[in-house]
Amino acid sequence: MDDQQTWLQQLPTDARERARQLLGAFNQLGCDDPEGWTRSEIEEDIPQLARYRLLRTLWPQMIDSWHDGLANIPAARRALEAGASEGDLTQLARAVAYETVFAMLYHLGADEEATDQLPSWALAEITPTGEATGRNLDGLHEDLLTLDPSGREGQDLWN
Predict the structure, then answer these.
(1) pLDDT value at position 1?
(2) What SS3 class is residue 134?
(3) Which end of the chain is less packed: N or C, by CB atoms within 10 Å?
(4) pLDDT tens digit string along 64-109?
(5) Max alpha carbon distance in the chain (Å)?
């Protein structure tokens, strides 16, 4: 029996069924480490499936989308006309996008101005029917690099 099967068999029946559902969902989403994310959700009660679903969309939609977006920015067009490298401009745009996404994710989890008199915020997990689970999606910035679809963990942004 492999480690995953051993781990699953050691879980209580309800947790085992939930772990199997999570493993299936992570696999369906193309997760590189479905067991690690599942173990964390089961053992630490962290909403890892919700975290993964959000984080996996950020690279293609907000960071890597700059591969084709330069022509829409007048300043980039002028830089290209002046002789700038399209590759360098794309890398710059992607690096700025990464830094912005990282800062926003950090900001969502760290309300440094929170007081007893002002409202704050939280990014929270909900069920498929829209009900709050009571679990927040914290520390999202910590996993952003690990979900770079290229597998390079963002190393190409700073070369």
Answers:
(1) 55
(2) strand
(3) C
(4) 988 777 878 899 999 999 999 999 999 999 999 999 999 999 999 8
(5) 65
Whole-angstrom distance, CA of residue 113 vs CA of residue 95:
28
Written as six digits, the tokens of 101 are 């996404």
Q: Which residue bears the tokens 């959000």? A: 54
The three-state DSSP-derived secondary structure of 32-87 is CCHHHHHHHHHHHCCCHHHHHHHHHHHHHHHHHHHHCCHHHCHHHHHHHHCCCCHH
CA angle 153, 156, 159 (to 5 degrees): 135
Q: Which of 58, 27, 29, 50 is nearest to 146 (CA)?
A: 58
Which residue numbers in the chain have pLDDT < 70? 1
The chain-wide mean pLDDT, for the chain, equals 91
